[in-house]
Amino acid sequence: MITSYAPEAGIARLLDGAAACLGHAVPPEWADAFRAVPRHRFLPGRVWLSDQAAGYVPCDRDRDPERWWAAAYGDASVVTLVAEEGDGYRRPLSSASAPGAVVRMLELAAPVPGFRVLEIGAGTGFHAGLLAHRLGEDAVTSVDLDAGLVERARRNLAGVGLRPRVECADGAGGWPEGAPYDVVVATCSVRAVPHAWVAQTRPGGRIVTPWDSAWGAYGTLALTVRTGGVAEGRFRSFGAYMPLRDPAASGGGLVRDTSGMAGADDGVTALSPWAVAGEDLDAQFAVGLLAPGVWHAWDAEPGEAGVAVRLVLADEAGESWASIDYDGERHDRFRTRQSGPRRLADEVTAAHNWWTAQGCPDVSRFGATVTPDGHTLWFDHPDHPCPPVS
Length: 390
Fold this sequence. Notes:
Radius of gyration: 22 Å
Strand content: 25-35%
Number of strands: 18
Shape: globular
Number of helices: 10
Helix content: 25-40%
Distance between the termini: 52 Å
Largest sheet: 9 strands, mixed
């Protein structure tokens, strides 16, 4: 176990863990940055660690130093800020990303000395610190919507002798004052790339951002900017980040409880709910792309006779809902219930059928083209848009 008296051993462990994630050693320039910007200096005294049984549980450096230091230098994300929900659930608001994922993002972005970088999502300041060590603090600008996080990131960075520009702003708007940038890199996920990022990146520059859908956050999009406000690129098979926060978001709208809802249509499907909401992240990514705005959650105790487990589906507008039920016995036949203008179970089934018909492709076969008018998601080639399934 790592102790508070052995940060050097912690950094060595961090580099080993990141290398195992990458499949190769951390590049020397980034290994040097990790040594110069110790991760533990960017974590608060209390963090929250994932626990499958209890969600996110607090871990205090003073009370449980061994566990805290192991988390600080493990290759896993560490939640640094939560919101307490009414039911006691702790919803993560900010985290320190897993070092292996950080290096993969940096490798995709490929910043070199002389480049100017805009980071979306300051968080703890750790990612900006790595960039500032590599490129120089004057070359890095980081923005975050949360003023408290901005102040904490500034303090953390100053604590290791770095002072890149860290500003409080809506990340969707970028930071036009410092444009044009050679690289825009996000430490939060998006469902559509804000065109401000494209407009603020020079032609030939890179935009790297984790991806999000209502179905789930997974995948990282790496774009190259062209002239005329166009950017294009492919997804990569890593990255599960918190979404870019919308300052106007009010929450609500999702159907979280299907009990007592009337007017549903009963049906049957051969689609196992685990096929679309299980451990196959490629399948989940495809469903999220092809059935936009469809949210899901597992109900392990539906409280209904003949239903052992239920997969609940809802659209984000709060107008449609569906469920796929497992009776505890049959694995080739599942009851569906659907209500509202969208037939959500049918959409999810169609999305999965298309994905399997293409040979169950991985994330890297999908891409996106971003223009001033929006974005187009495509399969294999920009000339082959992903088909609608609704």
